[in-house]
Specification:
alpha+beta; Arc Repressor Mutant, subunit A; 3 domains; 5-stranded mixed sheet; 44% helix; globular
Length: 361
């Protein structure tokens, strides 16, 4: 399987290379959902998968509701398109609810409380209103519902999972919530098997080669659901066995390598990293001791050269510049460093700032 390079195919299929997308929603739709609890990082994750897209354009798309942010798939925020949000919530929200059940009991968040909470939030947001979390907390307190701290977070998350609310425009640096019915009216719904089929297709087309366990992790669905979905679509996909693992990918995948060395500065939780449970094709765990104190490269901004995670990076924002601090695990070749420098400059261009680079050994 020497010619079956998993990392390069994932780079291609995730549209980090050779993208034809020019709009943020095209990227989000292709990927299905983009993990976005770190909002600024998630914008960069989308931005570098499209041509000539900058941070301001992405913020505008978010403000206008062209891309939405909500709890979906696993219990964390993701970007999703209005067209996909309802069927994806219907498919994945029951599994997220199940994952929250223990904490709901400890926080005394029961069905009756959720009905009252949903009703109060829904009535307050009618007419295009957009409220911050603190303002929602005040609304709930007026309705006689204790809502603060972790309990408030669970009440709001349930309202997202149940299709009551989704993201509104940011107010300064604060996030707001809007009614989903007003933000994404009349968007499509699918029967469960249709939705499962669509999500499996979207995943293996945009992230293949990947395993069944990778899809189950990413989607938050059970292995049984993953197997059922794959059975319904596998005729349209190819597979190869590598190290006793079965990797599925779109039959149209060419596996064509981009010019070497290629380099990307990926943000934390980028789909190239977080979209798989087995990341051995792109990362050598023997490098863990070179990470920060958290010791998990999912939490890091990573340097990727020729498909492999070869270091981490940090940013510091100044008035007119971004300082990018690069920490490669090993000394880069001259060509590799040039490719990384170009990737860092692209990040500055995305932000509309000049770029200053520093290397830390």
């Amino acid at each position: 399987m020497a010619n079956f390079n998993i990392a390069y195919q994932r780079i291609n299929n995730q549209k980090l290379s050779d993208t034809k997308f020019t709009e943020p929603q095209e990227v989000v739709k292709w990927l299905g959902a983009v993990q976005a609890q770190d909002y600024l990082a998630a914008k960069w994750a989308v931005g570098q998968r499209a041509k000539n897209i900058n941070d301001a354009a992405l913020e505008e798309s978010f403000t206008d509701g062209i891309i939405l942010r909500t709890h979906i798939l696993r219990p964390t925020w993701h970007f999703v398109t209005p067209e996909d949000i309802r069927w994806m919530l219907a498919l994945t929200a029951p599994h997220v609810h199940a994952a929250l059940a223990y904490y709901d009991r400890s926080l005394k968040v029961d069905a009756a409380t959720l009905r009252r909470s949903h009703d109060a939030i829904g009535k307050t947001l009618q007419g295009g209103k957009q409220l911050t979390r603190d303002e929602i907390s005040a609304t709930l307190k007026k309705a006689g519902i204790v809502a603060g701290g972790q309990r408030l977070g669970h009440l709001v998350m349930h309202a997202e999972l149940d299709g009551i609310i989704c993201s509104g425009a940011r107010r300064g640096k604060q996030f707001t919530y809007s009614l989903l019915d007003e933000r994404a009216p009349l968007t499509r719904t699918l029967e469960r098997d249709e939705a499962l089929t669509e999500l499996v297709k979207r995943y293996f087309t945009s992230r293949g080669p990947a395993t069944l366990k990778d899809f189950a992790w990413w989607s938050g669905l059970s292995i049984a659901d993953a197997q059922r979905g794959l059975e319904m679509v596998k005729a349209g996909f190819e597979h190869k066995v590598v190290d006793e693992q079965v990797y599925w990918y779109a039959a149209s995948t060419s596996g064509k390598k981009e010019a070497s060395p290629s380099a990307y500065l990926l943000p934390n939780y980028d789909e190239y990293v977080v979209g798989y449970t087995d990341r051995s094709a792109i990362y050598d765990q023997s490098q863990n001791h070179k990470l920060d104190a958290r010791g998990n490269f999912l939490f890091q901004n990573v340097i990727v050269v020729d498909g492999q995670v070869v270091g981490t990076w940090k940013r510091s924002l100044k008035k007119n510049e971004v300082i990018v601090e690069l920490s490669p695990f090993e000394k880069l070749t001259k060509a590799g460093q040039s490719a990384v420098d170009r990737a860092a400059t692209r990040y500055g261009d995305f932000l509309g700032l000049s770029t200053t680079l520093t290397y830390v050994t």
